[in-house]
Amino acid sequence: MQGDRYSRTVAWLKVALPLAALGLLSTLFLLSRVVDPTQSIPFADTEVRDRLLNQRVSGPYYSGTTADGDLIAFIAETVKTPNGLTGPSEARDVFVKVDMMDGTTIRVTSHAASMDVAEDISDLTGNVVITTSQGYIITSEAITARMTELDIRSPDTVFADTPAGEVVAGSMHLSSPEPDAPAHLVFTNGVKLLYLPKQVKD
Length: 202
Description:
- By secondary structure, this protein is an alpha+beta fold.
- The protein has 2 helices and 13 strands.
C-alpha cells in the first residue's frame, strides 16, 4: 500500500515538475521587456555627433623639440577643433612641461587653452600657473606663448613668488634669447617687490 502511494507520488512529480518549469519560463518571457536592437543608447547620439563635428580627443599627449633643442610635453583633458575645420584648437585642463637645454624645467598649468599651430601661438586662460625649477611660481589669468620656442608673455597682472620675494607686475615676459642660453624672466608695468630676506641660521 505504502509502495503504491510512493510510486504514484513519483509518477505525479515527473509530470508536475516539468509543467511547473514550463510555466516559470513562459512567465519570464511574458514579463521580460522586448529589446529593440535598433534603439539608440541614451545620450550616445549627442556625444558621437559632438565628437564627429568637433574632432574631440580625450586625454591627448604630445611631445616635441623646439628649434633651440628644448623638450616640450603637452597633456590635456580634452582637445577639439570646432566644426572639424583647421584653425585654433580648444583644450581643457592643460599641463605643459618644458625641459630646457640648460637644465631648467618649466611647468605650466591652466584651465583652458586655444592653440593655433599655423600662427605658432597659444593663449592659456583661467588660473595659469608657471613653476620653474629655479624656485619661481607665477600666476596669472591669461598668458600667450609661442609653441616652437620659449616665449611666454602675460598681458594681464601677474603674481610671483621668487627667491628674492613676492612680485606683483602688470605684465611679464619669459624667453630664451639664444640657444643654450638661460631663460630670461622680465617683469614690467608697475612692478612691486616685497623683499623677503632669507633667515640666517644661528
